Automatic annotation (TrEMBL):
It is an enzyme of class 4 (lyase). Zn(2+) binds at H27, H41, H43. Binds 1 zinc ion per subunit. It comes from the Bacteria. This is 6-carboxy-5,6,7,8-tetrahydropterin synthase. Its EC number is 4.-.-.-. GO terms for molecular function: 6-carboxytetrahydropterin synthase activity; metal ion binding. Its cofactor is Zn(2+). Keywords: Lyase, Metal-binding, Queuosine biosynthesis, Zinc. InterPro entries: 6-PTP_synth/QueD (IPR007115), 6-PTP_synth/QueD_sf (IPR038418). Pfam families: PTPS. The active site is at C37 (proton acceptor), H78 (charge relay system), E129 (charge relay system). Pathway: Purine metabolism; 7-cyano-7-deazaguanine biosynthesis.
């Protein structure tokens, strides 16, 4: 796997953790304006997830790298994204575009982080769909940054 640093906005948290992983998945965009993307096709997605916080947990981790990968990889690797309940063929904001998949990954990760007593925060999800196309999803925050 290529080792690379991805752009992250400045923040004042003490710890910043990044987890990289791949997953292979099929999808289509169910709208005629999506051109060839209307046809079912596959990608080897590359994800980089950035998590920040000020406190470590009982293991000395901000969050376990393995859990972050498993949350996404176990659900989406070798999956047909359009069949996953996170996505819909009827609402554009839920079509499995790079943007929506990146946002969905954020939502899954942050939901897990919300259950942790040391309160880590997912700052952004970088999602590469092809060698020439990627999206960064950064939730809007009023606090800390
Ligand atoms: N804003 C978005 N635009 C497009 C998305 C998307 O998710 N968000 N998706 C697609 C297609 O699904 C396709 O997977 C990617 O398209 P594209 O980058 O055009 O792929 P190519 O490999 O053909 O790119 P080249 O750089 O021309 O080789 C389309 N648009
Ligand atoms: Zn695609």
């Amino acid at each position: 796997m290529m080792q690379q640093i991805y752009p992250v906005g400045s923040h004042s948290y003490a710890y910043e953790l990044n987890k990289d992983f791949h997953f292979a998945a099929a999808h289509y965009i169910p709208h005629e304006d999506a051109g060839k993307c209307q046809q079912v096709h596959g990608h080897t997605y590359f994800a980089n997830i950035t998590i920040v916080g000020d406190e470590l947990d009982h293991t000395g981790f901000l969050v376990n790298f393995k859990i972050i990968k498993d949350l996404i990889h176990k659900r989406f690797d070798h999956a047909a994204l359009n069949n996953d309940q996170a996505f819909s063929d009827y609402v554009a904001d839920q079509f499995p575009s790079t943007e929506v998949v990146a946002r969905t990954i954020y939502e899954i990760v942050q939901q897990y982080l919300d259950s942790q007593s040391n309160c880590p925060v997912c700052l952004q999800v970088f999602l590469r769909e092809t060698p020439t196309s990627y999206c960064i999803y950064r939730p809007k925050r009023k606090d800390r940054i």
